[in-house]
Specification:
Blueprint lengths: L1 H12 L3 H5 L1 H6 L5 H4 L1 H4 L30 E2 L8 E7 L6 H10 L4 E4 L1 H4 L3 H9 L3 E4 L12 H19 L5 E2 L8 H9 L4 E3 L3 E4 L2 E3 L12 E4 L9 H14 L3 E2 L2 H4 L1
The protein binds zinc ion.
Zinc ion binds next to loops.
Length: 262
């Protein structure tokens, strides 16, 4: 009896355990880190996002265009790549789990930061940056710039360039005007401060889902999406991001890095 048991276990050890259990069973007995293997499930997605394509070798506002003319104002990037871009404003996303989401899903998100809103929260954005987010300019004080004198607009934009340089050692190239309002003085001031593109959005994810101020009422390649960080009216930032990602997948798209295209 004892000899048979020894013989059996000895025999079992000599066979590849995956072969022995069959592939399905092997999948069932790999629960040690199921979320680690399939982080998309942890974040409410049925399947992973497709990997982004190789970014263009010549971005729209690449170095060749710098220093010449005014920066373009964009809410959409002309590209045939099946990518859209996820952007966030205002320093409201201080939830540490959002950092986990960005890291685990490898989301190349762009954060537009306002100094007076971020306040003591710069450490959070340093963490986001360390997991792959990029940081861009959203003014010092989040005032509506349209109609202000050039000098005042310049102070708001260049002032935040200075803050981001001292906090992160960065020279942001992208700027989003608060509330999406701007005029020609804004674009000139942005150019003065080293900005190469003024970034608006074509789709916005708010409490009621995705809305499109103009153009097709679905996501198309090159769309810039603003995820509203205000959690006081409805789903959390993470849930909103999940909802956007589901729509991105439904349209056969994935998330690209805005800075690779602009
Ligand atoms: Zn804002």
């Amino acid at each position: 009896m004892l000899a048979a048991a020894v013989l059996l276990s000895g025999c079992a050890q000599s066979v590849d355990p995956i072969e022995r259990l069959g592939k399905k069973a092997a999948q069932r007995v790999r629960p040690h880190d199921p979320a680690g293997e399939r982080p998309y499930r942890r974040w409410g997605l049925a399947a992973p996002l497709p990997p982004p394509p190789e970014p263009p070798t010549r971005p729209l506002t690449g170095s060749a265009g710098r220093g010449y003319g005014l920066p373009p104002v964009v809410d959409h990037v002309p590209t045939r790549d099946r990518v859209v871009f996820l952007t966030y404003d205002d320093g409201a996303e201080r939830d540490p789990r959002f950092v986990d989401m960005v890291r685990e899903l490898r989301l190349p998100v762009t954060m537009f930061l306002t100094d007076s809103v971020v306040g003591p929260g710069y450490g959070h954005f340093a963490r986001l940056r360390s997991v792959g987010a990029t940081i861009q300019n959203h003014t010092l004080d989040h005032i509506s710039l349209r109609g202000l004198p050039h000098a005042g607009q310049r102070a708001e934009i260049c002032g935040q360039q200075d803050k981001l340089r001292s906090r992160f050692g960065l020279r942001p190239r992208l700027f989003r005007p608060p509330y999406g309002t701007y005029d020609t003085a804004t674009v000139r001031a942005a150019a003065d401060c080293g900005i190469t593109a003024v970034v608006l959005w074509r789709a916005s994810m708010g409490p009621a889902g995705l809305t499109y101020p103009h153009g097709p009422h679905r996501l198309v390649p090159g769309d810039i999406i603003a995820v509203d960080p205000d959690e006081s009216l409805g789903p959390t930032l993470r849930e909103r991001t999940t909802r956007v990602l589901r729509r991105v997948r439904e349209q056969g798209l994935t998330v690209g890095r805005l800075e690779d295209y602009l």
